[in-house]
Design goal:
CATH architecture of the domain at 47-153: Sandwich
Oligomer: single chain
Number of helices: 9
Number of strands: 10
Largest sheet: 4 strands, antiparallel
Strand content: 15-25%
Radius of gyration: 19 Å
Order of helices and strands: HHHEEEEEEEEHHHHHEEH
Length: about 250
């Protein structure tokens, strides 16, 4: 994800976002940046182990599938960390139109707007599988960030990466076809580029949700999904399996 003309150490995710806005999770081997010692420390840091030691102000909560974690307009007084499961983030407009803005999995934080002075939730979070979530009160989270520099570095790096992802999502909406947007979302949901292997996407993820995420209709999603399946880019086996060959759709002009 880089250009040979860029100076050493310069953040390299931006140019590829303009050319082919795939997102930082779709880095290829040729575009990967060798991690520095500091970056390696961030990667090696285990937030689960640390968060288990912060004392009062935290608790584990089990949310069954389809249960709301918080709603739009609720008081923003805590940050959440997903131990296991998947969570959907949505927002509803004043006219009642709902949009899905993200699906998060193991190791993801959400609800961090409370740390920036957000008084009320600007969106909703719902469990789309059975979830074990760590709820961390705002005060406890702030104290942990001030006390443990490695945790603070990891958290800031996570937020920056997600902000880049949101910017790339916007570029994707503005310049790419709905077919490319769907392919990109499926690759991101499968964590393509992180582990080198495709994984099963959220079981039974609805085409309505995919349509909301890419800004098109369910019928168009159905049309493209059938095309991807016939071409061998995806297949169904108890869940949706995504193959790396789907990247051809994103890279094709």
């Amino acid at each position: 994800m880089s250009s040979a003309s860029q100076p050493k150490g310069f953040p390299r995710g931006r140019k590829i976002a303009r050319q082919t806005p795939i997102g930082p999770t779709l880095q290829t081997e040729h575009g990967a940046i060798s991690p520095s010692i500091a970056a390696k420390k961030i990667l090696d840091f285990d937030p689960r182990a640390f968060l288990a030691t912060i004392g009062e102000g935290r608790k584990f909560v089990l949310f069954p599938k389809k249960q709301g974690i918080f709603g739009q307009g609720d008081t923003a007084d805590a940050v959440f960390y997903i131990q296991t499961g998947k969570v959907k983030l949505t927002v509803v407009s004043k006219t009642g139109k709902e949009a899905t803005i993200g699906i998060l999995g193991d190791g993801a934080f959400f609800g961090e707007g409370s740390l920036a002075g957000q008084a009320l939730r600007m969106g909703s979070a719902t469990a789309i599988t059975d979830c074990v979530v760590l709820r961390i009160e705002k005060k406890a989270m702030m104290e942990a960030l001030h006390r443990e520099h490695e945790f603070s570095d990891m958290f800031v790096a996570y937020l920056l990466a997600r902000n880049i992802r949101y910017e790339e999502d916007l570029v994707d909406q503005l310049f790419n076809s709905s077919e490319k947007r769907l392919a990109r979302i499926l690759l991101l949901l499968a964590h393509f580029g992180k582990e080198g292997k495709p994984e099963t996407v959220v079981p039974k993820i609805s085409q309505e949700v995919l349509a909301e995420m890419i800004g098109t209709t369910r019928s168009r999603v159905s049309f493209f999904m059938n095309r991807f399946r016939k071409l061998g880019f995806i297949h169904y086996n108890g869940g949706l399996q995504v193959h790396s060959s789907l990247l051809n759709v994103v890279l094709h002009d």
